[in-house]
Amino acid sequence: MYIALICVLVAGLMPYLWTGIAKFRGPRYDNTDVRGWQARLVGLPYRANAAHLNSFEAFPLFGTAVLAAFLTGADAQHVMQLSLAFVGLRLLYGVIYLLNIAMLRSLVWLAAMACSVAIWLAAIGAVAGH
User: Fold this and answer.
1) Where exactly are the structural domains of the chain?
2) In angstroms, rounded to a whole number, what is the distance separating the alpha carbons of residues 130 and 128?
């Protein structure tokens, strides 16, 4: 579970990668009016900010799934593989978001979501004795 827990840390920090891109590629960052600054973003900085927000949205299901798997004694190898896939897919998702490829972005989002659900199912299976 060591690798899976590291993946939770990486996924928890990932939103800051995307917001950093928005801040450095967008108009001069205004720390006194962050929400107003975000509302004025367009193009790549806007998409980077959207990836930032979506990363926060995806994190709770993944993070709790890994913790549930850890606590229930789910198959560590399986959870590790799914966790690595989740992180890789979420990084790919952000890149695809920046490139503005909507259909592929949605497919990658779905694949990452499936990883989180599969980890939850592994935890549920461990509790059920499967």
Assistant:
1) 2-128
2) 6
What lies within 8 Å, CB to CB, of 18 at 6+ separation is: 48, 49, 51, 52, 55, 94, 97
The two three-digit tokens of residue 20, written as one number:
């950093």
pLDDT in tens, 60-116: 999 999 999 999 999 999 999 999 999 999 999 999 999 999 999 999 999 999 999
Distance CA 114, CA 92 (A): 15
Long-range pairs for 19-27 at CB < 8 Å and ≥24 separation?
A: 19/48, 19/49, 19/52, 21/45, 21/48, 21/98, 22/46, 22/48, 22/49, 22/52
Question: What number does CATH give the domain 2-128?
Answer: 1.20.120.550
Look at residue 44 in the predicted model and tell me its pLDDT.
96
Size of the chain, expressed as the number of residues it contains = 130
Distance CA 23, CA 99 (A): 17
